[in-house]
Please model this.
Amino acid sequence: MTSPLVAPAAEEAPIVIAVENVSKRFIIHQDKSIKDRLLHPNRTRKHAEDFWALRDLSINIDAGNTIGLIGPNGSGKSTLLKVIGGILAPTSGRVLHRGRIAALLELGAGFHQDLTGRENVYLNASILGVSKEETDARFDEIVEFSGIEKFIDTQVKFYSSGMYVRLAFSVAVHCNPDILLVDEVLAVGDEPFQNKCLNKIREFQEEGRTIIMVTHNLSQVTDFCTRALVLGQGNVIYDGAPDDAVAILREGFRTIEEASVVRERLERERAREEEAANRHALGKITDIRTMPSRTPMHPGDDLEVEVDLEVARDFERWNLGISLTNGLKQMVLMTTTSRANPNYEPINAGQHTIRFALPGLILPRGEYTVSAAFFDETHFEVHRLDDAGAFLAETDDRSAGMQYTPAAVTVS
Ligand code: ADP
Ligand code: MG
Model:
């Protein structure tokens, strides 16, 4: 059973829940088939089967965390919450906790059907260790939050599931718990109430309380949780970043082995992204300027393009490309330092200006922009700046299209 935790050594974020080698076995009694009963009439009608809903789980939870507990149906989420909440005893192992736990588990759990809402508030609060005087003091607030004032003196057996949840959540959060356990029940409430609950959960987070929530709404996990556990067949198949946990679940992985394949892939992807980010940090195109020999440009005019580049290290081999794009987003011309000058020099860390001379351009009329990209020795694109330097080209309209030429005509 759940018992108080001994004082931790750590100063910051003490462990508030310690699940130690917890296993939970259910014994499932199944009726034998008619055939079995005919063949073996003397044996008992039922046969019992062991079912391990939780298999040797060890989890430490630090104060102030919001843990998302996710996994397919039957993976053991509710069982784990009940064991943490002390509602179920583990078959082996133990759970230690520090502080007051309020649990919002199955629908109607902790509610007595024949009692009214009001009586259940007192009953529930007392189970959570709140005195009658304290409950008196908070009663109005509890009822107001629940929004079921009109039914507070009705027996709860006449409540809808939404009304149950409203009252149960309200009692749970007004009992000043250090640890709040919430099973999927929240989904039963209507949207305004769900939002109200989520706001309350945010408030709890800010106050440094610890929350464990089971939800099938995976965006709640990424939005609210600081850590997520994915359960599969009674095992923790993933424990870590909510984004990764959700990715693992979305891809339908159910075993530790399957999840570890995804985890490794996610780790590789992250390592690649990190490496790319490091490489992207090595160079930056800070400006592109275009200097036509005349404004607007006319066919045959020259264009000079200046690209300001800042690099964080020396580059023995490098390449910088520019492209001219017309108003239809079509690339009309591109060149690179290596095309324009195969013998260009290495560059040192620092600021550089790379000048391209583009003489005698024959461009159709229109607006153009220039993009530039800087590549390292492995042709990795370190940085690019799109559609920066803009300029206009003008023609005498003797031709139109992707090319311009001063078309002439004779008729004979
Ligand atoms: P989840 O909440 O992830 O859907 P549960 O923790 O409710 O899963 O259940 C885990 C497994 O344990 C399921 O296969 C369920 O059928 C079984 N189980 C849960 N409670 C009992 C019980 N009281 N008796 C027998 N089996 C149970
Ligand atoms: Mg469940």
Q: What stands out?
A: Residues 15-99+178-276 form a domain with the Rossmann fold fold (CATH 3.40.50.300). Residues 26, 28, 51, 53, 71, 73-79 surround adenosine-5'-diphosphate (ligand 1) (CB under 6 Å). The radius of gyration is 34 Å. The CA atoms of residues 25 and 52 lie 4 Å apart.
